[in-house]
What we know:
This protein is an alpha+beta fold. The protein is built from 10 helices and 37 strands. The strands form 9 sheets. The chain has a 6-stranded mixed sheet with strand order 29-30-31-32-33-34. The longest helix is centred in the last third of the chain and has 26 residues, at 462-487.
Amino acid sequence: xxxxxxxxxxxxxxxxxxxxxxxxxxxxxxxxxxxxxxxxxxxxxxxxxxxxxxxxxxxxxxxxxxxxxxxxxxxxxxxxxxxxxxxxxxxxxxxxxxxxxxxxxxxxxxxxxxxxxxxxxxxxxxxxxxxxxxxxxxxxxxxxxxxxxxxxxxxxxxxxxxxxxxxxxxxxxxxxxxxxxxxxxxxxxxxxxxxxxxxxxxxxxxxxxxxxxxxxxxxxxxxxxxxxxxxxxxxxxxxxxxxxxxxxxxxxxxxxxxxxxxxxxxxxxxxxxxxxxxxxxxxxxxxxxxxxxxxxxxxxxxxxxxxxxxxxxxxxxxxxxxxxxxxxxxxxxxxxxxxxxxxxxxxxxxxxxxxxxxxxxxxxxxxxxxxxxxxxxxxxxxxxxxxxxxxxxxxxxxxxxxxxxxxxxxxxxxxxxxxxxxxxxxxxxxxxxxxxxxxxxxxxxxxxxxxxxxxxxxxxxxxxxxxxxxxxxxxxxxxxxxxxxxxxxxxxxxxxxxxxxxxxxxxxxxxxxxxxxxxxxxxxxxxxxxxxxxxxxxxxxxxxxxxxxxxxxxxxxxxxxxxxxxxxxxxxxxxxxxxxxxxxxxxxxxxxxxxxxxxxxxxxxxxxxxxxxxxxxxxxxxxxxxxxxxxxxxxxxxxxxxxxxxxxxxxx
Length: 652
């Protein structure tokens, strides 16, 4: 049976074998520079590689240079965020000490019957991952925290939530694992586990701060760590007490400083609900919503003088976000759409001692990589230096910036976290528009579309393919504009437009995703989209287009499949039924409650010409959109069918 959880203690010890362990050491945690070490990136003027004009990029290297300078004798982990699973441990200079590949570890564990596909990776260090899963227990759902050895693949169950308790954070700090949990009636507790030096086992340890933590049960605590940035759910109370000397708690819109020796201070200047974003012994940064500009403005409290300061206040077409805070300096970004989806991010440094801000750099989105926020992606502070993930050619790499230097230089650390293979095969063109109400000027529709353009070296028909794709994008935009003009309008709804501008604005996004060339002949272009027209959420979309590079013609499943559409529908329905049966009771993502009903529903949706057929290296994936076969929360339900099952051969 397919399970989304691992419900028992699982330990892979000697049974894995010494050869497997040796391979793990090479694959999952290496102190040799495994990343590519390319030279200086593309020109800052040409836009390739994602560098904005005016900032220099140099190759900083990632090999250890001299003796490593650690924090408290330990490495700092660089977290790339949601889009990558390669994590690096670095010293205070950004030199690589270790490399962790979570996806590879998951795949190896799966071969031994352990499925961690739905685990949330919260902390790591010293060759171990610390993850949690929300799982079905014997009679209820609950949280289960595991420690996983990246070398030996040993898995240890650290903690299982009791009924009525919820996991809040997992933090690996100074060689110990801190698990913070809370209960509506009992407040918080923070458990400590210490890893044995000789084996992959853990012993519980009494928390000296437990009495302090329990005394805070009636307060809403805000935790902020210099080394972890704003990573929610990864910061312990103990860490914050050590780094800042206090924690901030709120009750009835009043905010307090609580030190572990019992001192309580009312934070001056805050007497309403705000969002605390960062703090240390020098100051506090918080945001407050402005009803007039409809934006969150940034403020600060100088804890040495008690002065309340305005950090950033902008117009209603911009978004302000605190990126990091340390040593009395707040780093924030003012982001503006340019004009829609594409963004211009300007990063500033605010100093509490002077009360002044200065611009550090400005970056713009790159079509084809709009999910990588320019200049702010995975922003992290290490020893006063800024680390961000940025595109460099087709790779996503960690860059380091010294914010106190006279000239802003993005130093390439040669630490690769992923790639955008779209730039290996070509480029991206875009089109967009914003349609405003002719009477009140409120935006009523925003559109952003991307289209792929193939590099000529891959096909003699590249120009034909590119013209077809770009013309279709242009024609789509023109049709949308014409339809909007034909609708006609009056000023009767302007009051609604102004009162609820977001709800009344339809937004449409369509972007290019993965690019592949299969069997040295077929170009596949994956697209993802999102439509919003009011309500709780919009609708995502996903589809694929395929071109024959030897003829320039667009092809689909019927170009390869010799059977009838009826036989294809039966095959998809049968595979979907198998997927339904692979889930444990209560875990299914489907609407239907029986395998027979799943078969009937799948048969209805399967057809030759559906854009839901995705060609891959070893087979096709048939994708069901939300609400086709399951609720919105299930997302896309994917069914894989090998080419052997479909075509009677191993490849396309």
